[in-house]
Amino acid sequence: MSGEVSSEAPDSSTRSSARPAVPSALRAPLLTGAAVGAATLLLALRDPHVRGSYGFCPLLELTGLACPLCGGLRATHDLAHLDLAGAWSANALWTVTAPVVVVLWLMWLVSAARGRPVKGLSSTAGWVTLGVALTFFVARNLPWLQPYLTPWV
Amino acid sequence: MTTTGTTTETTTDLTMPARPAAYPRNNLGAWSLVLGIASVVLLLGVITGIPAIIIGNQGRRAVRAGEADNERMAMTGVVLGWISLAVLAAVIVLVIARFLAGGPDS
């Protein structure tokens, strides 16, 4: 009898203490989602294909080099309009990465909603991302790949 | 004698599982360095430079809290982030100077 009571008591106490903690844990992923969603909506409505509509890139202006993010705004606009081919020609890497980012955000939201401790991305993921971005950066500035990966330069 | 020996052994055994991963927040310093390298080598500048500074400082805080041991890695990320800010400032000056000298054809 006493054993049953003591085993139930901590269970109910952790439940009551976990309840109010959930909304504050959800705040960060929801705010991030709202900010990114608002930025995407702006990009979908105000077309970044219009030259100078979002200013200019100092790197492209000064050196003519396309960084790994070049064409990212146009690709996001095209993705928002479900134009996969347009997005691919603007920034192939971002076209592939954007869905991964959405999935990672959903995983963050789910683990926050379930009250799990949110682990950051691993060091290995960081180095892999850097390697992929470096490869893409070199590839899109090579003369024979430029027509495919950076057609506007 | 034997009882004190066993108690010291059990205490050392109990402290071992208290730290399953020795430094669980080392990924902060690594990501700061990744973003710092991206800002300078990939020419992304402040786009990844500012996150490198923020995450690098979180990583240094984690080192002080005993949750990470890569202080140098985090510091390098922060420094690279600040370098990207300095480069942006220089570039802005350069663009303005070029525009004033050569006109709008630049």
Task: Give the largest interface.
Answer: A-B, 19 and 23 residues
| Main sheet record of chain A | none
Q: Multimeric state of these chains?
A: heterodimer
The overall strand count of chain B is 0
Supply the number of helical segments of chain B: 4
Envelope shape of chain B: rod-shaped
Q: How much strand of chain A?
A: under 5%
Helix share, percent of chain A: over 70%
Number of helices of chain A: 8
Q: Over all CA atoms, what is the radius of gyration of chain B?
A: 23 Å
Query: What is the 3D form of chain A?
Result: globular
Arithmetic mean of pLDDT of chain A = 85
Distance between the termini of chain A: 78 Å
Question: Which secondary-structure class do the elements of chain B indicate?
Answer: mainly alpha
The percent of residues in helical segments of chain B reads over 70%
Radius of gyration of chain A, in angstroms, nearest whole number? 22 Å
What is the β-strand count of chain A? 0
Low-confidence stretches of chain A: 1-18
Q: Gap between N and C termini of chain B, in Å?
A: 86 Å
Structure classification of chain A:
mainly alpha
Task: Give the SSE layout.
The complex is a heterodimer of chains A (about 150) and B (about 110).
Chain A: H1 2-18, H2 21-45, H3 58-63, H4 72-80, H5 84-90, H6 92-113, H7 123-141, H8 146-149
Helix pairs in contact in A: 2-4, 2-6, 4-5, 4-6, 5-6
Chain B: H1 2-15, H2 26-40, H3 46-64, H4 71-102
Helix pairs in contact in B: 2-3, 2-4, 3-4
